[in-house]
Amino acid sequence: MSKLGIAVAAALAIAAMGVAWQAWRSMADVEIGTAGTIAMILGALATIGLGGGLVALLFISNRRGFDDAAGGRPEVKDRERPD
Fold this sequence. Notes:
Radius of gyration: 22 Å
Order of helices and strands: HH
Number of helices: 2
Largest sheet: none
Shape: elongated
Structural class: mainly alpha
């Protein structure tokens, strides 16, 4: 990923956090306790972990050739496949 792409992604992430913080602070009557904060953090971590696990399975499946038959490409024999 280029430096520009990283900079744009970081800027968008910061902007999204700023909007979320402003929306949170504008709801003055709503308070969240310690249990709610812990639940929110654990939920976010579980979501990130699940996403990372699914992406890992995607890469593993692609590298081992499990997706070759599903793509409609002709079957490649092991001796013809480049290393």
